[in-house]
Amino acid sequence: MSIDNTTPLMKQYKEIKSKIEHNMKKQFFYLFIATVMIGIGLTSCLKDDNGDGNDSSIISYFTIKGTFPDNQLVSDNGVIVIPTRESLIKVTNNKGFGNFKRAVLSIVYNSVNMTTDEVTKTTTIKYATIVNGQLIPSVNPIDAKTAAEKKITVADSLFEIKKLEQSWGSVTGYLSTVVQSEYYINKKRVPVAPTFNVVYDKADMKENELKLTFCSNQHRSKDDNNVNISKFTTSFFIKDILAQVPGTDSVKVTLSGQGFEPKVIKFGRNIK
Question: What torsion, rounded to 10 degrees, do the Cα atoms 251, 65, 11, 48 define?
Fold first, then answer.
């Protein structure tokens, strides 16, 4: 069975796989990962000889569930992965995932440990080993009134992104984006990460429809051009907002913002 090949990010997963494997046995804090995301590196726990009986692998985006070291992972299309305790302890240096709820992970497993429930059609993989990966920042959406009070939506705070490369939803209620954006280099030559938010207005909600505005703040004046360009991945937890949308059908989420044409992402009502 092929896992996650239908997601819009498999090409990107394959591109970063070589980077993940190249950095095995190392642990880094990344402010900027040039081709993928902001995140924290996870140490490799894959043996060099790979003589552990694993014959299959996944690189996918996951939602982190449960408490360390008994976490479960749910891929964006609903595959449940139960990693070994040993794997979790090694890959996180016995520190767990902290407050992070999202990650892109490279995982190996033995295919005999993958089963699919005949009733729910849910696929579960047990005794998996996390090879390596990156933690992804997750952000809660902000209502329009609060955003205005915090000056998130004022003109001087909003910056146009260069490109919205990917946008997709997960069965766990996250809307994720990969954007190409400028970031500020301050006077001390220190890069400053941009801040990304999505803003909603409950008054604009219609039956089975939700509008979100993507907001980017680069923490600089607009006449300061001491910038560079990178790609950033962010996950927005919109599950609770989806629950407020009237109707019973799937929810059509329209994401708009400066620098890209509006994108439509559909979410089912049965959020895990």
Answer: -170
Q: Which long-range contacts (CB under 8 A, 24 or more apart) does 114-117 make?
A: 114/1, 114/56, 116/1
pTM: 0.83
Total domain count, the chain: 2
CATH code of 239's domain: 2.60.40.3220
Hunting for tokens 């001491």 — which residue is that?
Answer: 226
126 and 176 share a domain?
no
For the chain of 272 residues, list the mean pLDDT of each consecutive stretch of 10. 41 40 30 35 47 81 96 97 95 94 96 95 96 95 97 95 98 98 94 96 96 97 93 97 96 98 96 88
Q: Torsion angle of alpha carbons 267, 33, 181, 101, nearest 10°?
A: 30
**End-to-end CA, the chain:** 22
Do residue 148 and residue 258 come from a single domain?
A: yes
